[in-house]
Design a protein that fits this description.
The chain has about 260 residues and is α/β, with parallel strands linked by helices. The protein has 2 domains: about 5-80 and about 155-260, Rossmann fold; about 85-155, no CATH class. Helix content is about 35%, strand content about 25%. The chain is built from 8 helices and 10 strands. Strands 6-7-8-3-9-10 form a 6-stranded mixed beta sheet, with helices on both faces. It has a 4-stranded antiparallel beta sheet with strand order 2-1-4-5. Strand 4 (about 60-65) and strand 5 form a beta hairpin. The longest helix has 19 residues, at about 235-255. The model has no long low-confidence stretch (mean pLDDT about 90).
Length: about 260
């Protein structure tokens, strides 16, 4: 299916100053087209490394990653990415920042500008195209980062703790905004977070990873109806799911030897 992202027995070992470090061990995960999947786990468990591998910025030590049936061997046009920081160019206004992928990929600029304006409206930023990054709040900057990642219409959107630098209230607002945009665009999303409530609010499935070397400790389904509001976080069913995640996280951190090696 278009947009499907698959990790097949993926491992990653890299060289450090004092020797080899095994970051990821034998990770297999199949993300369906249009699915929203969150990954949560302790620091250093390889969550961000999975994003870099899927982007083609790093190579697996073993195993393969495929997107829409094609093996990832390097950066590709059908993938978008949003990092912790929006990393907007301060000398470019909002529209010009969004058009950066168009310049890099050689897209038709007139058509890309129209797409950028439509996406700004989708993100609730109509009228801000000529503003510069310093004129925007942190949440607005991150919305621009999401819009930029969507400009070239990628099938898969990779998000590495995109709201980590925001205050709690803005973070909740951005999560609701992301859900709204995702429901309209239905991209396949792999979303890395340390925030349990964020994962439960956004994801169809939550992947819990063990301490390093990162392995999949648990896969939890979240069938709560959408759209989900902040009120969902006070629902007893949400509380039960959060408790299950915490239980698996505690086990993943305190007893990682229980997971297959």
């Amino acid at each position: 299916m278009t947009g499907t992202l698959e990790f097949d027995r993926v491992g990653l070992t890299y060289q450090a100053g004092d020797g080899e470090v095994e970051a990821i061990r034998d990770v297999s995960l199949d993300i369906r087209g249009g699915e929203f999947v969150a990954i949560i786990g302790p620091s250093g468990c390889g969550k961000s490394s999975l994003i870099k591998l899927a982007l083609g910025l790093e190579k697996t030590t073993y195993g393969t990653i495929t997107i829409a049936g094609r093996v990832v061997t390097g950066p590709r046009r059908d993938v978008g990415v949003v990092f912790q920081s929006a990393t907007l160019l301060p000398w470019r206004n909002v529209i010009e920042n969004i058009l950066l992928p168009a310049d890099i990929l050689g897209m038709n600029r007139t058509a890309a500008k129209k797409t950028a304006e439509d996406l700004l409206e989708l993100a609730g930023l109509s009228g801000f195209g000529k503003k510069h990054p310093y004129e925007l709040s942190g949440g607005m900057q991150q919305r621009v980062g999401i819009v930029r990642a969507l400009l070239h219409d990628p099938q898969v959107l990779l998000m590495d703790e995109p709201f980590a630098a925001l205050d709690a209230l803005t973070r909740e607002t951005m999560a609701i905004e992301l859900q709204r945009i995702w429901m309209q665009r239905r991209k396949t999303i792999l979303f890395v977070t340390h925030n349990i409530s964020e994962a439960v609010l956004l994801a169809d499935r939550i992947i819990v990873m063990s301490a390093r070397p990162g392995r999949i400790a648990a896969v939890l389904e979240n069938d709560a109806p959408r759209p989900r509001s902040i009120d969902w976080l006070s629902d007893p069913r949400c509380g039960l799911l959060e408790m299950q995640i915490r239980k698996h996280l505690d086990r993943a951190v305190l007893a990682p030897e229980e997971f297959p090696t």
